[in-house]
Amino acid sequence: MSRSSPPWWSNPSAAMRYAMAALSIVAAIVAGLLLDRFLETAPFVSLFLCAIMFASWFGGVGPGLLATALSISAFDYFFLPPMHSIAVAFKDIPRLILFAITAAFVIALNAAQRSAAQSLRRTRDDLQTAVQELERLNASLQVENAERRRAEQISRQAERELQVTIDTIPALAARYRLDGSLDFVNQTWRDYTGLSQHSLTGQRWGVAIHPDDLVLVERAWRSHLPTGEPFQMEQRLRRADGEYRRFWVRRVPLHDESGAVVKWYGVGHDIEDQKRAESALRRSEAYLAEAQRLSITGSFGWKIASGEMFWSDETYRILGVDRAVKPTIDIILQCVHPDDREFVRHEIDRAAQGEHDCDYEHRLLTPNGSVKHLHVRAHRLKYESGQEEIVGALMDVTATRKAQEALQIAQTELAHVTRMTTLGEMSASIAHEVNQPLAAIVTNGEAGLRWLDREVPEIAEALDAIRQIVGEAHRASGVIRGIREFSRKGPPEMIQLDINDVIEEAIALVRHEALRHGVTIRLQPAPGLPMVRGNQIQLQQVIINLVINAVQAMATITDRERVLAIRTQRQDSDQVLVAVEDAGVGIEPGKADRLFSAFYTTKPDGLGMGLSICRSIIDAHGGRVWASRNTGPGMTFQFTISADGHGAGLEKGMNASAPPPH
């Protein structure tokens, strides 16, 4: 409730009060003069008393006295003889004194009334002020009460939320008294143990604890209750179904302002699954370590951004590095054979620059001077965080390489035996091929002698015969050289070859064998084939073996023409294909895949090694060999060989002791 502003006349200024007193007297004089003129009578005393009363009421005692003085002067001047003079007759003095007394009485009455009115106004104002203060206090109390109720509501809500939070957190929470006995447990604790809050009254710390752990828990409580130090430990707690699970429990004290312990609080986290996972991980790591030890395979990881590396124990053992040494790229390069170091550095740079997969072999030089062969395979991983890591494995393939080298030696020996066997089978063809130039030499020699034995020697004819003798001698020498090279025992030499030339030279050795069996050989070489990189003798051995097999397969055929077709063509962009197609008896369905297996043969007197050796030779040349039944009669044997420039590593395949290509 607001207080209204008082009117201006309730608290006028001093000048206004005195001015109003003078004006009231002037008004009384004017009224008296007008009444006296028009009515010939005037109540001057009453008019002046009214003016004095108004002046004292409006202005107070001072303006009232001023009005009294002015009234006496005006009364004397205007209404007492002599008129318009301030002189006072003796007889009029009592009259003026009586007027003055009356005016003073009126002034006193008005002053008393004014004082009472002012007092009442002040009292009213004070009451209004008090009412307003009470109203403000009441409003403030209402606000405070509302705030208090709201705070109490918030406090109750917070208490409920805190209780709900404590009861729903996925951990066992408990409060303990100073002696360590349970005071409160949350709902999670009650649900896990199946015990109620009421049943815990007066219980010590051994509630639901495994009997084997109770002594450790009691010892921990007794050692920490006097000191007030927090502690934590692992213990097993019984679940409602009777199963004991491991928990990691931490207990901390609550101190008052003086530092004294007033309560204890504890929280327990179920770590049973974590413990089982850790145990399984340890078993897995043990299995992995044992598997790596047995397979001589180590693992590694390399974080590209930070350069941090991880080696398994087997990796340390394979590299011959102490387990305490921190793995680095420099340590790896120090272990690498000097001849392979630049190659390994190049492969590491490729991996660091973004290569997704790595697969290569290199050699290690151990401190005792021995050499190890390693096969390294790695793969780039990208995690959700954006970090990239290269993980991989390195295998000690020294024993494998030695076995491959021994196998290569054995295969070379076997291939040599096979070639010698083939030469035995081709003896008639070889004799025919050698006899032809020898017979021609004899014939041309005899003709030359006859030309020279005439009376007039025919020198020109004799020279021509001698030239033919030289040509046939070179032809015989070529046949002998080819036979010698074919039967020679030695390491294979990889050179650039024209596959069509290789086929023609091989056919020259078996042509007579084909004619002897009535087989017609049709060569269909494709022009413009790329050069291949390989060993001429080994490739000729493959071709001769396939041709002889085809010739023998058609030996018993009488109802159709015995034709052997040999074709060459380009296969994709980096391969050359050779096909040997016969019209023989073929083989039963489903047995084509077994033809290249060792010791498998369809011949009564066969060893089953020819096609197996052919497959080994073609594999070493970076190609593959296979057989398929024709739509009509017979079989087709085909093999591919890498074109030169696409056969990196052929020498490595042919010679297991050679270092990897750089």
Query: Major sheet, described briefly?
Result: 5 strands, antiparallel
Overall number of structural domains: 4
CATH topology category name of the largest domain:
Heat Shock Protein 90
State the end-to-end distance.
103 Å
Q: Helix proportion of residues, in percent?
A: 40-55%
Named at the architecture level, the CATH assignment of the largest domain is 2-Layer Sandwich
Query: What is the overall shape?
Result: elongated
Rg calc: 65 Å
User: How much of the residues is beta strand, in percent?
Assistant: 15-25%
Poorly predicted regions: 604-608, 647-662
Enumerate the strands of the largest sheet in spatial order, edge to edge or round the barrel: 2-1-5-4-3
CATH class of the largest domain: Alpha Beta
Q: How many strands appear in the DSSP assignment?
A: 17
Mean pLDDT across every amino acid position: 78
- Class of secondary structure makeup: alpha+beta
Can you say what the CATH homologous superfamily of the largest domain is?
Histidine kinase-like ATPase, C-terminal domain
The DSSP helix count reads: 17
